[in-house]
């Protein structure tokens, strides 16, 4: 009998820290779809079930969009409230942030729109005084204390309940989408703890952002809803399609449309929540009126590391108003175009009392004392942000790099923008200005320089180009300035590539030893025979024969080796390849056969052929395992160039391929072997690839 006529649970699944077989997952989904299609003609109920199966993908995307948009809005609102909580509290409604508190006040003037009697700083609330050295020191102390409390709570929750909630999550998600299994990384606890601790980490004032971790949160939402539909829960390949709208490794066209639908639902949900308070979907909305012209030792002690970095950050950040506020607020002010009604230090220009031009067309003006004071503070903030971000990213709390990188670039861009603006005002006859900047005109917009600087810095860190321009457009709504953003993105990539080809996320993937094949070309002239195993002076390849191996032989082979699977050959003498069988499938089937199938003992012959072998009647009953045999494993010849092999592994997502010559099995190449060989060709340590 064929014991596997009716498959049982866990057959075809994978162990933790292993790579999935994309071809097998695709084949299983094709068989499933073919079975549903054939059954749909049998009855109305089966036809309805086939329709539900077809629309389940769209339903999953709808649910992901709703939950992701809701979580993003709630996180934004919570971060605003908790960030302001470090400085004071709203007496009229404790859950209001500083800005929301003063919105509801009837006693706020335009000049002092950030001051209202309903909002009180902690020192004022405790002592009744608003000024003085004691008041400043008390506010300073409480600011640091709140920051330490938020960060301690964040790192404690991560360490105790969900260690996978730390970091940005993007390197791991890219690796998971490439076919790697990390159990629990997209689980329910990770989703809950990541959401809560992301709010705490950002609110603590650490130099980190929430955009990268939000990608992890969205993928957790996708994995959560996948578990509700067998179409996705039982197929690792289909499950990965759901998350590919965020970080793609392989992007089918139908996934593109479904991802667009999920993004649309999330955008509508976010708009309904209105977390930014401006009825817009962008975080840093800009509208310019001038066109553009052409890791430490502390890492061993994660809690201590977070507390130490938070303490240093809070102590150094409080005295400078540009580092005290949240990074999102800082970027928003740096992007701002100075209008006639702005009260920021960056807009303290000397106005001409006889000016009669429209408010939206203010000419360039000489900088006032507030601008020069802001320049010194921004210079100090730039040095602080660069240094502290280096030590912050990678700590054991949710930490994104988008916003801190943009802040560094925006500060540098605003400084350069103000310098160019003043040069154009005082030296408009210089050759670089006189062809397009006439006296009394609005020639230079420093906020635009900040936006381009933010894009350039983020591009240099992540090596993104096209997607970076799209992200900047999404964040700012500045469609008119796509060309300078593209120029900045490309230039920053060229400059950064001169120091190294890897972006920050690729560097983290390599640092963690994840089995991820990047998109760089492999140009070395090596062959499959140079990489395959076994090599010279190594034991022969562990194989199974099609009809002469016993159950005891199989169990011994499994016990003595840690291979993920075994080739099946006709015999040890001929070594003619028949197929390939997975280790986990062998273990599960032999275990179940011993429990449920009478007559299967250690001496029972295991056969993978269609018909049972000729054995004496006195022998125990044989065990047929043909159904778990992959009869079409991917093979290459021993003279196949490794350039082709690497391309095959990357595009087909292979777990392993077999090396043959004229149908005779010579060896095997696994994904780990490919990664080791690539590292060796780049003069790197091949043993840095830690996972299977």
TrEMBL record:
One of its GO terms (molecular function) is voltage-gated chloride channel activity. Keywords: Antiport, ATP-binding, CBS domain, Chloride, Endosome, Ion transport, Membrane, Nucleotide-binding, Repeat, Transmembrane, Transmembrane helix, Transport. It is found in: Endosome membrane; Membrane. It is a multi-pass membrane protein. InterPro entries: CBS_dom, CBS_dom_sf, Cl-channel_core, ClC. One of its GO terms (cellular component) is Golgi apparatus. The keyword Zinc-finger does not apply. Its main location: membrane. The chain crosses the membrane at residues 58-79, 140-165, 255-273, 301-318, 374-395, 401-420. Residues 532-596, 629-687 form the CBS domain. Pfam families: CBS, Voltage_CLC. PROSITE patterns: CBS (PS51371). The keyword Nucleotide-binding applies. SMART domains: CBS. PANTHER family: CHLORIDE CHANNEL PROTEIN (PTHR45711), H(+)_CL(-) EXCHANGE TRANSPORTER 4 (PTHR45711:SF2). Belongs to the chloride channel (TC 2.A.49) family. This is Chloride channel protein.
